[in-house]
Amino acid sequence: MTTDTATIQPYLDHHGRVAAALPGGELPWLAGLRETGLSRFSRQGFPTARVEAWRYTSLRPLEKVAFEPASAAGGAVSIDVLPTVMPAGQASHRLVFVDGAFRADLSSVGALPEGAVVTSLRQALTGHAALLERYLGHVGVTDANPFQALNTAFLADGLVVHLPKGVAVAEPIEAVFVGSGGGAGTGKPTMHHPRILVVAEANSEATLVEHHVGQGDGVYFANLVTEIVAGEGARLHHYKVQRESREAFHMATVTADLAKDASYDNFVLTMGGRLSRNEIKPVLNGTGVECRLSGSYMVNGRQHCDTTTVIDHAQPHCTSREVYKGVIDGNAKAVFQGKIIVRPDAQKTDGYQLNRALLLSDTAEIDSKPELEIYADDVKCSHGATAGELDDDQLFYLRARGIDLESARNLLISAFLADAIEEVRIDTVREAFQGMVTGWLKTQRV
């Protein structure tokens, strides 16, 4: 069951007004891709709670807002306050997008290995159109994700990374997505739909760091889609922090096609947004694949965050691991839906899944739904989910040693989240994320 036509009609009307101005209009394959996306979105609409995958997340707050497409040039931001995950002095390739539009004046891409491509999607439409035609819109496309379809319909800009065979990019690639909340000069809430495409050929390696942040208190809708193609033996580290403004809406879909012996690890740190959802769906399409999905979420007030994962073991001798931990305060709500699918031929699968939540108030809520869907008999799979409060005995122990209540609580919360953050394999990124956790805790009060 989806929402009625009236809810999605404004999006269809907006598309009709901006379609002619979208980049790459001279490319027939791109026009067809957008039309297919629009058609899918029109058929699907926004899901209601009657759709199993959306049972615990209501889209009513999103549906009530009338969004306008963001300006093609992006909104105004101040370079003095533009954030970064990477520490000062750390070499990295940094691309900045404001309201979904690439800003060359705020970006810096250093020297890359021969053949490697790190550029904006708009620029790639001119210089790497054949690469985009081959891969864009072909990874994990489904009729069950209207936000993926909506992104494709409005596809205009984003990040493109191409790693040829055997190429390793030593420095992290950081993509900063800023929501200006500026209303494109109209004072109305805006929406943007950035796209990320990563093609890592055989035995290549890179680290991608996404930073999503809002400026001010404006209302906006960020709808991100990421497609990942990892060739045989490729290694991709993919890390993300979501710090949108408190009134923003953040929907993100990640699909990944992982070939033989590929290694993919994904970590999401969720802190911002009024309503957010991270949907991550890798397919283990070759033997010997290692896939690690993990994350931490910290929400309070009336925030709602949703983490939905589906790891599809399509081939034998693959390993997957999931560790998600969250802290929920005030009237906030978190959702975790994790599914591991083991196909009939995927013998010798090793799958592990864990979700733990810490509830800091009587009105905080967690809905956790771990699932195993197994069609093979020679596998090792397990899952678990727990929710609880801070341990009074541990608090007493710390306070008895002269630590005040607020500091004691923060120490216990930080230690609780540290287990998940340890899943981040890159030291500088892990330390940066831990620093953000510490910063968040300082804003909380007992």
Automatic annotation (TrEMBL):
<feature type="domain" description="SUF system FeS cluster assembly SufBD core">
    <location>
        <begin position="188"/>
        <end position="416"/>
    </location>
</feature>
<dbReference type="InterPro" id="IPR011542">
    <property type="entry name" value="SUF_FeS_clus_asmbl_SufD"/>
</dbReference>
<dbReference type="InterPro" id="IPR045595">
    <property type="entry name" value="SufBD_N"/>
</dbReference>
<protein>
    <submittedName>
        <fullName>Fe-S cluster assembly protein SufD</fullName>
    </submittedName>
</protein>
<dbReference type="InterPro" id="IPR037284">
    <property type="entry name" value="SUF_FeS_clus_asmbl_SufBD_sf"/>
</dbReference>
<dbReference type="Pfam" id="PF01458">
    <property type="entry name" value="SUFBD_core"/>
</dbReference>
<dbReference type="InterPro" id="IPR055346">
    <property type="entry name" value="Fe-S_cluster_assembly_SufBD"/>
</dbReference>
<dbReference type="InterPro" id="IPR000825">
    <property type="entry name" value="SUF_FeS_clus_asmbl_SufBD_core"/>
</dbReference>
<dbReference type="Pfam" id="PF19295">
    <property type="entry name" value="SufBD_N"/>
</dbReference>
<feature type="domain" description="SUF system FeS cluster assembly SufBD N-terminal">
    <location>
        <begin position="9"/>
        <end position="173"/>
    </location>
</feature>
<comment type="similarity">
    <text>Belongs to the iron-sulfur cluster assembly SufBD family.</text>
</comment>
